[in-house]
Amino acid sequence: MRNPAAERAQKAWFGFVLGVLAALPALIYLRGFTVDDALIPARYAANVAHGSGYRFNAGGPCTDGVTPLGFPYLFAAFADQGPLAALRAARVVGALAWLFAAGTLGAAIARLGGSPVRYAALLLVLFSAPLGAWAWSGLETGLVVALSTAIAVVPVRSSKAPLAGAALGLCAWLRPEMIAFSLWLGAGRVRTAESRRGKWLTASLVVAPWLAAAAARWIVWGRPAPLAVFAKPSDITHGAMYVLPAILFTGAPLAALGPLAWSKLPGWPRTLVVGAFLHLAVLVLAGGDWMPLARLVCPILPPLVLATAHILSSRSSAWVTAIRLSIGCVAEMVVFAMRGPAAAHVLRDRLALIDAAAPVLAGARAVATIDVGWVGSATSAEIVDLAGATDPEIAALPGGHTSKAVSGAFLAARGPDRLVFQIDERSAEDAITFTRATEARLFADPLVARTYVVIWRSPAVLPVRYIVLSPSPITPP
Questions:
Q1: Going by fewer Cβ within 10 Å, which terminus of the chain is more open, N or C?
Q2: What is the DSSP letter of 127?
């Protein structure tokens, strides 16, 4: 005798395993990925763990250097041994969150029924370097992707509306630019709530975290937006150049972008597609991002994978979608081949750089640099943040985060006894060149040239080269 409930559970478990297996290859291959910015919240977490409070410099002011306000508190319990310990914890949490989310995505696809071709949508997960890499980054991205996946797969029922609302609210807290995505999907979930109380509760859960973070910033720092908005200004042109290639090279937006198929979708997957492209429009207006592998696009990829599976489940519209899916998968494989090898070794290279620079920075009182993440992990000294990511005074200066108008006189007022500059990898011993405007300007500044001398170069085997300058010709250990 057939047991429909047991058959549904068996199908869901099959899909869960399939989703996990789809996510595993990229997750394993790119387990060495991270970014310098991930060490910024890690240093905040270490200072919280050591009793110094929510600040980047232990003896400095409380600053708003982390976009998801309060995020370092999640990992402060693991940060007693310093920023690198906090980074390790954040990386593991992000990877496990995405792996479980990929399983729930596979289970949701299995529950759809219809054509077995729907499982081909998981190829978009299998070949996705962005999803595999950013799960390991140590930033909030892995958690945001897990939350956006949960929102997509939670059954559209009245009783589940507050749960979906809470997940949407957390998404907008972790990534403020996701507020439009959250509001759009939240409106869809509010409509599913039957009681007035359920509708109000769902709506409140969607907007409360985002509003609370903005209000807290206004009260503490006098502005509702994260400091990164001012430290890393951008424009619509840069946003368009960020989003348009991502539509092709992240695979899922292209696969789900079918007007005829979209018109045949049920209400919720249609809402997912509109919400995803609304998010892409917001990214254009916000100016995109400066980090690799389409970080800000990652949260919408699993919802679009589910929408693609919905289209593939219907034989009437599957073949055109299969063509778009194939193109998207090929584009993903191109990204994997071109960016994957370098991305897989970022953590190893950063740890080697930290180990090599730590003796040179030992005993420093203050260190000025653009790359405050790895430098802040190599020394406990005060960091003068030349990018302004953790320093409101420098963030307010004209220029982008690598071109802030920091003069030699401004630098002298801060009094750093070490400067850490990134140099062009082709620089000769007697002709140092730079690719970033702030460092080039400061190195050529007469006051800096008279005061500082180069005392160290990073090992030539590392892919990114740095020099350290000091006011006196000391001999590094």
A1: N
A2: T
